[in-house]
Amino acid sequence: MPANKFNNYTNLGIGVGLRTAHYAHILNQAPKVDWFEIISENYMVSGGRPLEVLDCILDRYKVVQHGVAMYLGSPGPLDRDYMTKLKRLVERTKSPFVSDHLCWGSIDGNYTHDLLPLPYTKEAVRRVASKIKEAQDFLGVPVCIENVSSYAEFITSEMTEWQFISDVVELADCGMLLDVNNVYVSSRNNEFEPRDFLENIPHERIAQLHIAGHSDNGDHVLDTHDHPVRSEVWQLYSEVIERIGSTSTLLEWDSNIPDFSEVHAEAIKASAFQLEVLQHA
Amino acid sequence: MPKRGHSKAFSSGLTGVQTLMEEIITRPLVEGGLNQLHHSGDEMSTVAARFIKPNSKLTSFQRLEIYNQQYWYRLIDSLREDFPGLQAYLGEEVFELVVTGYLEEHKSSSYTLRNLGSGLANFLLSNQLPTKSKSKLGSQIAAFEWSDVIAFDEEFVEPVTQKDIEKPGFINTSLRLQPYISVLKLDYAVDSFIAKVKDLDITESLSDEKKRPSPAKRLTYCVVHRVDNVVHYKRVDSFAFELLQIFKGGCSINALGERLSSFANNYDDAQIAAQISNNFSLWTKLQWLYIDPEQGQEK
């Protein structure tokens, strides 16, 4: 959906993930970009270069925060220190909403720094939904959750991934960041039909889309963000746009990062796909 | 102790599954892959099959192994990025052994990878294997590179101003060194070494032991700080080092003389006053000192 309560009624266009490799180009050349997505944790620091750069970016561009460490599915309460710093950053960036992953990554104070999949159980639905509600209340902006790439499934799962996501977002009354590449990666690894996933999630709750490249290792696919977007993922992206309409889209490129112009050119292909789909609608 | 093949059944509840998964994926890799044996004595493939579904291409063990590998690749890469000098000094193979041992003993306790290397210098000092002869220098390199991390993004507090200095009673005001500044006493010229490493083609030096750089042995007092958000290294003399160490813990100008007493035996009062005055003037310009908000004025 173009603009809804889950993205604070914004449709920002086509964005690019802000990466340090591109700082100099962006600050010196001021390229025309609809918006940037920042990894929240990179700017939850006390001072120095990261915040200086962020303030320059904020002077010129719209910024949306995307996190990798809220760990909504981990046991125990939300990390108060983390949430306080996150809120401080939201106040600085004026991010219309924040997103993080439907995953876990820490236990007993130990952090894996990974986005680990959850068993798709009712217990997990209740745990995650409760934390999302708490996070939204605390932050004062909508929280959207992203489907992760997964390489394994749990024997204890009681439902499909799309049913799990639907139950979580309904119970938490939150939005969804649909990562189209992650759907593809998980579909290959977990052997499901990606269109089943895309048909059965609550479309009205989609606040933003992610696209990225992956690495195909034959017997499994890794979500590496080190390639252009693959044609299979663009195909799925077009089908999503056909279903939900023009939606804020973000390209992630995190490894083997090329020049900014190349990354941006890859991102704005999404505009062409959106245009093509909507012209035929 | 559970017998082989008869380990205690894990709790299949959500937290039980997560506990088991975290315990397995954080175990060090064996020959680049997941350890074949679980610590319970069971085959890892048996343990994996208890909670991970196989698919048509991969077994439960292989699917779990992907997470195990990703964990170690990610964390070691992060330390590689923050400690290029230590890697250049130890070589890639020893570096990996050291950081694997470190991470095995010190799992990450922070949500951010930025803090991952905070204990590496102490670990090197207290764990001499497999680099017994190199552990002291390795520890100093690690401490220096950790200071680099701190200098990059730690807090800048509003510094002491000329107006503060002119206030009555200022000499009794407790002052502190900025949180982003580290003061190091090194047995080697680690600062020059790190500067050199940053200019090197690390890949080339790592592959050839003869090309691997090593710091020169020289007692060095160094401050790692930043100017305009760029990290700098500044050498100081032993007197300035002592003063900065004192300010790190908080001290007023008036109390400096007493705190310096054991160090300054070889200086007369005029020399001490000149040292304090000259250094204080420079550090004020550099904005290195701030008024300790917790202590304010000392009695």
Task: Detail the topology: elements first, then pairings.
The complex is a heterodimer of chains A (281) and B (299).
Chain A: E1 14-17, H1 23-29, E2 35-39, H2 49-60, E3 62-66, H3 80-93, E4 98-101, E5 104-107, E6 110-116, H4 122-139, E7 143-146, E8 153-154, H5 161-172, E9 175-179, H6 180-190, H7 194-199, E10 206-212, E11 215-216, E12 221-222, H8 231-244, E13 249-252, H9 260-279
Helix pairs in contact in A: 4-5, 8-9
Chain B: H1 14-25, H2 44-51, E1 52-53, H3 60-82, H4 84-90, H5 92-105, H6 120-126, H7 135-153, H8 162-166, E2 175-177, E3 182-188, H9 190-199, H10 202-207, E4 217-227, E5 230-235, H11 238-249, H12 253-260, H13 269-285, E6 289-291
Antiparallel strand pairs in B: 2-6, 3-4, 4-5
Helix pairs in contact in B: 3-5, 4-5, 4-7, 6-7
Features:
heterodimer, A: 281 residues, alpha/beta, TIM Barrel, 8-stranded parallel barrel, two-stranded antiparallel ribbon, 9 helices, globular, B: 299 residues, mainly alpha, Outer Surface Protein A, domain 3, 2 domains, 3-stranded antiparallel β-sheet, 13 helices, elongated
Task: Describe the protein.
The complex is a heterodimer of chains A (281) and B (299). Chain A has a single domain, classed as Divalent-metal-dependent TIM barrel enzymes (TIM Barrel, Alpha-Beta Barrel), CATH 3.20.20.150. In chain A, strands 1-2-3-4-7-9-10-13 form an eight-stranded parallel barrel, surrounded by five helices. Chain A has a two-stranded antiparallel ribbon with strand order 5-6. A two-stranded antiparallel ribbon of chain A has the order 11-12. Helices cover 41% and strands 20% of the residues of chain A. Chain A has helices at residues 23-29, 49-60, 80-93, 122-139, 161-172, 180-190, 194-199, 231-244, 260-279; strands spanning 14-17, 35-39, 62-66, 98-101, 104-107, 110-116, 143-146, 153-154, 175-179, 206-212, 215-216, 221-222, 249-252. Chain A contains nine helices and 13 strands. In chain A, helix 4 (122-139) packs across helix 5 (161-172) and helix 8 crosses helix 9 (260-279). Chain A has 281 residues and is an alpha/beta fold. Chain B has 299 residues and is mainly alpha-helical. Chain B folds into two domains: 1-81, no CATH class; 155-291, Outer Surface Protein A, domain 3. In chain B, the strands form two sheets. In chain B, strands 3-4-5 form a three-stranded antiparallel beta sheet, with helices on both faces. A two-stranded antiparallel sheet of chain B has the order 2-6. In chain B, helix 3 packs across helix 5 (92-105) and helix 4 (84-90) runs antiparallel to helix 7 (135-153). The longest helix of chain B is centred in the N-terminal third of the chain and has 23 residues, at 60-82. The chains are: A alpha/beta (281), B mainly alpha (299). Strand 8 (153-154) of chain A pairs antiparallel with strand 1 (52-53) of chain B.
